[in-house]
Amino acid sequence: MKKTALIIGAGPAGLTAALEFLQKDDIHPIVVEQENFVGGISRTAEHNGNRMDIGGHRFFSKNDWVMNWWKNIDSDMMLRPRLSRILYLRKFFDYPVSLNANTVKGLGLWRMAKIGCSYLKSSLCQIQPEKTLQDFMLNRFGKELYLTFFKDYTEKVWGMPCEQISAEWGAQRIKGLSIAKAIKHALFKNSKETSLIDEFLYPKLGPGALWQKAADKVLEMGGEILFDSKVVKVDCRGTKFCARTNNEKIIEPDYVLSSMPVKDLVNAMEDVPQNIKEIADGLMYRDFITVGVLLDKLEVGDIKDNWIYVQESDVKVGRLQIFNNWSEYLVKDPSKIWIGMEYFANEGDDLWEMSERVFKTLAISELEKIGIAKKESVLDSVVLKVPKAYPAYFGSYDKFDELRAWLDGIDNLFLIGRNGMHKYNNMDHSMLSALEAVKAIHSGSKDKSMIWNVNSEDDYHESKS
Q: DSSP letter at 164?
């Protein structure tokens, strides 16, 4: 009799796992999704004919398997130019930071001299061990550059001082970036030694369209996807699991692959040791709010940015997406400008609880304040909230290895994806964690280290190999 795998979550990790099982046709996947859409945070939302990529998703990976997987699902993806900049002092600077004439002109010789001296000092006096994210950044950039281009935005994202965030976040997200890499990029920008990607693949209708195609393929190949179904109970005792959903459906799978938040998974489980429950309850997340704003025009002209990082301390907005520059097909009327204003919050705080009307007013006023667009140019707007978008590297995270070891000790349970592993993975890393879990199941291995080794290499996550 064919075995069954319960896959919790229809995001990149969950759908990848389902399709990998179906390729060999030996394990029947049942995907359980608490929402009525696929893609997780990689969804594409729609408002009045305009589409929003929640968070922005570049389809680029150093892993050939991932690149080929995407192309097989959506053979009609576009090749898009990559451009992100930092808005600081109401001026634009390259992101990642480049040591070029524009940077020198924008910052001025005195500030550049301070940055240089600060970097030399940090090179000679490295902080060891690196305990906090502030330590991590000071060692790579020096105090002045850290304060200029990194501190404000990072603290907007996490709502916490960098000296209270684990250095592991830096290892996950910015890895090999340093002043030395910036100099190399400036010197060899047009050669094969370019360190940062200059273009990426992108689905015409956003990432959600690709993941919908993946979901359609799961169904065509005989898999199941259950929407509006949240796993509320998981009994892992014995050789076969028993899971119950919010709509009282009982599933008894041979394997469980979970991409649901670890905190929620542990709270759904039976007979959890008290110390494990306390660690799970102490895990923290950062929540995400996007305000879509449709404009007649921008005050900064015809810019080509995908993202603009707002390193300005007098506004709450953290980043802007220009959806037109991701794909013109995201915008109903290409003559209009469709942007996403990204905010970071905690469920229950003032920003999260703010009414849609007040939030729109705040966002539009900040857009004008930073000189991007005027209020009278606004044609339409919408607010969209995503809970638990970012697993946080504070709270009880310093004890996460203890929680991981306990969960990994349950032979037929596999943690995958960003929230499933409480690891700040990109989309390709989430997919690779699912692939490694499926490999482990097919091989009968109890060693889950290969799943956790995904996204642990010491390279910038958007670098060319």
A: G
Number of neighbouring beta carbons within 10 Å of residue 364: 20
- 307-310, strands of its sheet edge to edge: 91-95, 84-88, 307-310, 319-322, 337-345, 283-295, 378-395
Q: Which residues contact 203 (CB under 8 A, 6 or more apart)?
A: 59, 74, 76, 77, 78, 209, 210, 327
Contact in structure between 342 and 321 (CB atoms under 8 Å): yes
Alpha helices in 74-196 (DSSP H): 101-107, 109-124, 133-149, 151-158, 168-173, 179-187
Which tokens belong to 437? Answer: 């879990």
Strands 250-251 and 3-8: unpaired
CA angle 150, 44, 19 (to 5 degrees): 105
Task: Give the pLDDT score at 181.
Answer: 58
- For residues 27 and 121, what is the distance between their CA atoms, to the nearest angstrom? 57
- Name the pTM for this structure: 0.91
Task: Specify the amino acid at residue 233.
Answer: K
Tens-digit pLDDT profile for residues 127-146:
999 999 999 989 888 999 88
Burial of 146 (0-12, 13-18, 19+ CB in 10 A): buried
Virtual CA dihedral for 107, 113, 114, 118, nearest 10 degrees?
Answer: 120
Whether residue 253 is preceded by a cis peptide bond, meaning omega within 30 degrees of 0, is: no
